[in-house]
Amino acid sequence: MIIAEVIKHLEDFAPIATAEDFDNVGLLVGDATTALKGVLVTHDTLEEVVEEAIAKNCNLIVSFHPIIFSGLKKLNGKNYIERAVIKAIKNDIAIYAIHTALDNHHLGVNKIMCDKLGLQNTKILIPKNGVIKKLTTYVPKEQADELRKKLFEAGAGAIGNYDECSFNISGTGSFKPNLVSNPTIGNKNEIHFEEEIQIGVIFPKHLESRILKALFKNHPYEEVAYELITLDNSHQQMGMGMIGELPEAIEEVEFLSLVKKTFKADGIRHSKLLEKKVKKIAVLGGSGSSAIDAAKSAGVDFFITADLKYHDYYRAEQKLVVADIGHYESERYTKNLLHSYLSKKISNFAIILANTKTNPIKYY
After folding, report:
1. Is 103 flagged in the annotation as binding?
2. Which of 40, 225, 333, 357 is the most buried (most CB within 10 A)?
3. Binding site annotation covers 105?
4. Name one Pfam family in it (predicted).
């Protein structure tokens, strides 16, 4: 097995094309064609984590956070980022980061938070826009079923809990092959009319190349007529944050105790308690101040996130309680998800959960 095969498993689950534009995900260090020795799964890639990978004979580090976020202009070892990268390069260790691709996944970071809190009826808090595309194509009636099947196999036609969704219209197509054409149907230099089916399917943006490959490979015509558009619809299973409900409404202090225990938080900063029971909860792992308004609009009782600033607590406006449980704490189970997933996909290589503690924040 080579490193690229591990990356394929990761991107089948959380494609890097679904990450946020500001992010830096994917293979950050190393050669994907290198033979795999072992995988170390971590939350952050620090110099100590690279040393752990060396000691455990792992030449691929799968990290939630990217060690390289903004561009590196020098590699002199003058800061923790440069030292980690230099050590990885010297020891032929590849580094792959997944970050917001997993944040945006409906079974990713925020689903873990919901599951750990026992929340039910979960859904995305801020569904992602601009990631649903629509393909429309035209195919002879006799070949329509086979082409539609191949498009479905490539990933088209999935809408929420439904697969193999399409819209089909019967009509008549016309074309006139020129003298250098090689028509499947009809004759050169003669106009031809064909009973056709117009097939329309939607698909997530990151599957575009796969969908088009299936279209061109399985369409009978020499020249394939098709249209691609990006829809304004939000993707209901992709996006930031998540909403869920507790099985039973509980007191605010009881819920804070549950959150503190669940995420092993040494302290929780929160806005004014509203002296009412809570049931509907929103979560967003990592820095989540940008989602406060969305949480208010959703009518939740509590919003659990991290990295809130002083004025963010005012934005609660006594409509909900916003709580900062710590960046690392909110994401602490993420590496376990990655480790479990890769262990199931790759059973004949060592998939090791890093022991190095990477939380930089300490409490007195």
Report:
1. yes
2. 40
3. no
4. DUF34_NIF3
